[in-house]
Amino acid sequence: xxxxxxxxxxxxxxxxxxxxxxxxxxxxxxxxxxxxxxxxxxxxxxxxxxxxxxxxxxxxxxxxxxxxxxxxxxxxxxxxxxxxxxxxxxxxxxxxxxxxxxxxxxxxxxxxxxxxxxxxxxxxxxxxxxxxxxxxxxxxxxxxxxxxxxxxxxxxxxxxxxxxxxxxxxxxxxxxxxxxxxxxxxxxxxxx
Length: 192
Known about the structure:
Blueprint: H1 2-17, H2 22-49, H3 57-84, H4 93-120, H5 128-133, H6 136-157, H7 166-175
Helix pairs in contact: 1-4, 2-3, 2-4, 2-6, 4-6, 6-7
């Protein structure tokens, strides 16, 4: 069900962006992918640096979402202020409309999957009411692979040395819901 809701979110984003420009939607999609990557990858460092974050399982989801939202706002401001206002990129009308809708569909799918993943790392998915609607395992099963592929793509394209550690971070975040988590397995990531 979470997968179909992600598809629906992608369709809504595509319908809204149909008359937007391809360049604008590419910029938004780029900023979303970078924000998701930083939200996932910086949470571990933030939790280890700021002790107040580790006091509740809800704090992890708040940290992931907070980092991602702040990153997106900063990147979007930079993109609009310095690139979109400076450069005028034009494409053919049909490519502009269809390309923008396609990129917006992908962006909507990513955003909903990321929000679903953030919800799945909170204890609220263990609530009996939520279990009747959809289980936390179903949400995690449909959203975690999308988030993992997005983070791996950004890691590979940015030539990160530890691209395999993303799966460890996602497993660590999913385990925080039970409050019995271990540190990510990759020791080479640990910073002194």
